[in-house]
């Protein structure tokens, strides 16, 4: 019976936490990513470089010129350790910020491509519509064409009227004579 309980305990998943009494801290990827971007943005600023330079100058000055016991003598190994620790944390944070920016750029590029494809399709459609309208307009009588046709018809009518009046005028002229 005891062997069966041991097997059940081994085959049944239990509490995954090694330390169940500790509070569980959860960080969302989004909030940690925002934190990484904030740090990367600060570390890439002139303010950070200025404050780091001031910190190094003060550190070295206090360790070289100070009249008390120096906590980090000349090779400045503790300062080097601080820089190494800072670099070991800042490099992954900067890479994480770059990855997030790359993901945003990819989404933006995909959206730009989609909009460009839709714009291209719209332009092609409009070009076909304009071409069909031009073809239709070529078959439609324009105002100038109608005017010229009306003028021609009017001139023909006037000429016919003149010819039809000429015999009358000649008859009248003969009657007067």
From TrEMBL:
<feature type="region of interest" description="Disordered">
    <location>
        <begin position="1"/>
        <end position="20"/>
    </location>
</feature>
<feature type="transmembrane region" description="Helical">
    <location>
        <begin position="74"/>
        <end position="97"/>
    </location>
</feature>
<keyword id="KW-0812">Transmembrane</keyword>
<dbReference type="InterPro" id="IPR010406">
    <property type="entry name" value="DUF1003"/>
</dbReference>
<protein>
    <submittedName>
        <fullName>Uncharacterized membrane protein</fullName>
    </submittedName>
</protein>
<dbReference type="Pfam" id="PF06210">
    <property type="entry name" value="DUF1003"/>
</dbReference>
<keyword id="KW-1133">Transmembrane helix</keyword>
<feature type="transmembrane region" description="Helical">
    <location>
        <begin position="48"/>
        <end position="68"/>
    </location>
</feature>
<feature type="compositionally biased region" description="Basic and acidic residues">
    <location>
        <begin position="1"/>
        <end position="18"/>
    </location>
</feature>
<keyword id="KW-0472">Membrane</keyword>
């Amino acid at each position: 019976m005891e062997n069966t309980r041991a097997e059940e305990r081994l085959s049944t998943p239990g509490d995954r936490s090694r330390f169940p009494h500790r509070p569980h801290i959860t960080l969302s990827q989004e909030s940690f990513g925002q934190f990484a971007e904030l740090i990367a943005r600060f570390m890439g600023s002139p303010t950070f470089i200025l404050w780091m330079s001031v910190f190094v100058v003060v550190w070295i000055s206090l360790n070289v010129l100070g009249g008390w016991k120096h906590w980090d003598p000349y090779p400045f190994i503790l300062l080097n350790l601080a820089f190494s620790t800072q670099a070991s944390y800042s490099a992954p944070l900067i890479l994480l910020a770059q990855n997030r920016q790359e993901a945003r750029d990819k989404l933006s590029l995909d959206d730009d491509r989609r909009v460009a494809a839709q714009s291209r399709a719209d332009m092609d459609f409009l070009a076909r519509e304009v071409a069909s309208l031009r073809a239709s307009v070529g078959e439609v009588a324009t105002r100038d064409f109608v005017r010229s046709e009306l003028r021609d018809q009017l001139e023909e009518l006037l000429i016919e009227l003149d010819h039809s009046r000429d015999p009358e005028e000649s008859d009248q002229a003969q009657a007067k004579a």
